[in-house]
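User: I'm designing a mutation panel for C2 domain-containing protein and want to avoid disrupting the core. Could you give me a predicted structure to guide residue selection? Please restate the sequence first so the numbering is unambiguous.

Assistant: Good idea. Sequence first, for numbering, then the predicted structure tokens:
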Amino acid sequence: MLVVYMKARDGALVEVGRTEVVLNSLNPTWITKHIITYQFEVVQTLVFRIYDVDTQFHNVDVKTLKLVEQQFLGEATCTLSQIVTRKNRSLTLDLVRREETITPITEESNPSNRPKHCGKLTVHAEECINSKTTTELILRCSDLDCKDLFSRNDPFLVISKIVESGTHIPVCKTEVLKNETKPTWKSVFLNIQQVGSKDSPLIIECFNFNSNGKHDLIGKVQKSLADLEKLHSSGQGQNLFLSTAAGNNNHKILNSQLFVDKFSESVQYTFLDYLAGGFELNFMVAVDFTASNGNPRLPDSLHYLDPSGRPNAYQRAILEVGEVLQVYDSDKRFPAWGFGARPIDGPVSHCFNLNGSNSYCEVEGIPGIMMAYTSALHNVNLAGPTLFGPVISNAALIAGQSLANHGQKYFVLLIITDGVVTDLQETKDALVKASDLPLSILIIGVGGADFKEMEILDADKGERLESSTGRVASRDIVQFVPLKDVQNGEISVVQALLAELPSQFLTYMRTRDIQPST
């Protein structure tokens, strides 16, 4: 019998399910399937343990079996993303068993305490058909409360899923409609992989757009996809509400209503279909070396390297984002840059290779990024100002070359910065140009700066970016999160940052009619 576990946030193993017992076999093939919700933004570690069930228990329901009474044969560990990124979604693992020893002998001197290989386990995953279902929604509001003194609202919607901790993660948003109190937005698309299940609660918030990034909440509703389907069938509206100061359970019901004008389900290619078809995510990183980070030799610097080995904010961001994304990149050679520093005996550079090379920018794996970062701190002088344009243009150049060569690659650039950009319009121009390429940009703000202006780059709560020539971005490719906003909550920065990446990927593929090879 095989037992499947998943590692929880605190490292504890949570049992997912058990297979049936296969009698008298050294080469069992189990047929029991276990359904696990795939979450792109989380590293989901699976542990498989195999037990020899004693003859006296053969007719007992496997759910009631006490595992301590069965003989442990071996275990294997992997992440769910390692399985789904395989071409045929099958992964073969070595089963190991560590023998317990009674006498306190060190592992080096006691070969019996080393893991013993005791067979192989092949795990196969397939995507449930309901997770391939994409729902198209056309949403409308009526009688919105006016938030502007001298004009009507400029409303838009943000749809968020609720994670275990109760925190909201945005997964989808509409365009901004100007001067509307009865807006009808263009279609939005949601799939089960984004929201969890058809019965998972969603928060739909209606905001009034403000150009300074401080948008007014007009009202909200909490509904699942199943609830929205019922609303559509009934033709009725749902009143928006606002939480009162007395607490989350006390709501002020508004006259404004949300209507579902269209609810249509169709089977479409999913993010996992593209992975199985050979598409990869290629990770890139750019680190802010401007002087506002503080002297790296002093403990109050954001770049301070703690002798105890405790990672600073930059190292944490690289490790946490890299841990999730590296699985989707087969060669694990990552372009890594720095900006805003003066290399020894040189002028200030706004895009230099983190490894110190003049000819190539790639490093080997996440450890390679960490080593190059540490080395760069000793070989550059922090300067300024904070310019994103050159780094974004370099990433766009690599993505453009891959596109020209018909590569099955989608690029993800992580920018870690301690300050607001000083080349805002140049950055907007670079982002609008890059929106036509297979590229997404994740920005983490570290330190205590006011990052409100940075939210303008992230179209989650605002309009699409516009270049200096008036050209509008073809899609939203930026996701921004300040480290300080979520470090005290249950949700990790990585979850908040990566949650929208699969939908950005799918938007790019679908608008260009790129289909995965089967």
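For picking mutation sites, this is relevant: The longest strand covers residues 247-267. Residues 389-404 form the longest helix (16 residues).
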